[in-house]
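Consider a typical record:
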Amino acid sequence: MPTPPNTYDASSITVLEGLEAVRKLPGMYIGSVSAKGLNHLIYEIVDNAVDEHIAGFCTLIKVTLEADGSATIEDNGRGIPVGMHEKGVSAERLVFTTLHSGGKFDDSVYKTSGGLHGVGSAVVNALSAYLSVNVHYGGQVYQDRYERGNPTITLTDGLLPVIGKTKKTGTIINFLPDPEIFEKTRFREDDIKSRIHETAYLNPNLTLVFTDMRGETIESHTYHEPEGITGFIKDLNKAKETVSDIIAFRGENEGIIVEAAFQFVNEFHENVLGFCNNIYNSEGGTHLTGFKTTFTNIINNYARELGILKEKDTNFTGTDIRSGMTAVISLKHPDPRFEGQTKTKLDNQDAAKAVGKITSEELGRYFDRNVETLRKVIECAERAAKIRKNEQKSKANLLTKQRFSFDSNGKLANCESRDPGKCELFIVEGDSAGGSAKTARDRNFQAILPIRGKILNVEKASIDKVLDNAEIKTMINVFGCGFSEGYGNDFDISKLRYGKIIIMTDADVDGLHISTLLLTLFYRFMSQLIFEGHIYLAMPPLYKAIPNKQGAEGMGKEEYLLDDAALARYRKQQKGGFTLQRFKGLGEMDAEQLWETTLDPSTRQLKLVEIEDARMASEVTQMLMGTDVPPRKEFIYKHASEAKLDV
């Protein structure tokens, strides 16, 4: 009897062997197949070399972006072991072909580690078109090579071939990302340099060299930061007006090493960065919770002891106390647990306890001896509390004056579904495009919110002006999750009404500017929307190519072309003549065209907005959208060759 269709039985269960699982589901291991995931391949190999440094055997790491698009990471550590493993094959071969193998499971080898606990090297191998390894070990140079995770060198009695002799020790790994896996295979050098520089700050006895061979001129930087995280704070605050000295401390509790440094500046944003075993935890975690909670308690207690807070006064909030704080918290943990494979959030409860205990002891000693610095910190909290209370009154008054209904005074064309996981909200530039989008959409799950022109640049505006902007108030109301995590803590992402918020603007300079203003708003006041993957950019095509003769040999059908590069490829492939229609704006598309190109989930292209480096994202946002002109001009000149001009 034949098996009926759609039957779910034992034969339906698929077992992915070896590295096949990594190639099938790369996002589980590196987060995404976008530029963020691409750069992550380099970080995995670098993190393994840093673990050698922490163990006391590596002082130099070199990262080179090669002219052919590959990356080379070299270290002077002990070298990956190449001897025979009990599995009957070279230990190096196991490291690169077997998940959950490596020295990180043996705490006599690595007390702490930052890589993917035995899967990092194998994951990089699985996602590379090729990967080659040269190991300098025991006076010999050993070589191995793989293509898409599969070995191409035959072992002799299970051991690697020797290709030379050496007096050095260490490992050299060269790999080319697989274009079958990644959307793009060009590494983003600015993000990599930022990550390498952070690593140098966190490891003051380590030197890292970055070289980019891909341009007309070779770019090279050496990073060595003997001041450690104190130097990191200096760098973060180099363009800011400081209020206090840098306060730094270090301690150990039950095998957990805690290092922290912080300083207050004349601003109202906090910038608290958390690292565990040299890995940046973009979503924070228990180590930051331990620091923030303890610091809040310490300052409130001192404020009462000094009579600054009276008996009838309420305590300062944590946000008040951290207003203007720049801090780096670095943890070395023997057995870290993270939420997610890419280590965005630390989950160890003992980390909060260790950080809290050391912070309490060290800051108690420091502030007892440095009362003037303590008073400056408390003054920052007083000022922030006063501003917060005024803003809360202003916010309450503004939102009371104009309470929007869920349809936002008729601007929103809502969808029928109320399931956030299914609902999509398109923020559309202009009434004309908004009208087309409302006609074209699938009203079951797609909502349309037209906005008029350019919203307020929130990087230059005060909070009362932000809250008084009609377009911003409309979006706050429509999203449903509140506003401004840093101002009153009333942002609740669990109340978000739409799983996808899609910015849909014209593909011209004005459209890009509107997108940038919206992203600045979301990043500064609703950043969880970005960090949790809810913000997208629509990718409407610039062109429609219509062949003069369709159906004949070599003659294609009508085709939408995303950009000039797509048009160039089409010209090469199209054998006959064609008519080219250029869409100068979304309003020029009729409803059918807009559905086919931009709204239909089966044919459209969307770009997920991601943040790889929160520190650099904040600096770039401030530079490009703020009031300081010279750094912006310098940035534009440097990156002018990368711009896509609308001609």
User: Anything to note?
Assistant: The chain is about 35% helix and 20% strand. The first strand starts at residue 60 and ends at 65. Residues 229-390 form a domain with the Ribosomal Protein S5; domain 2 fold (CATH 3.30.230.10). The chain has three domains: 20-223, 229-390, 406-540+607-642.
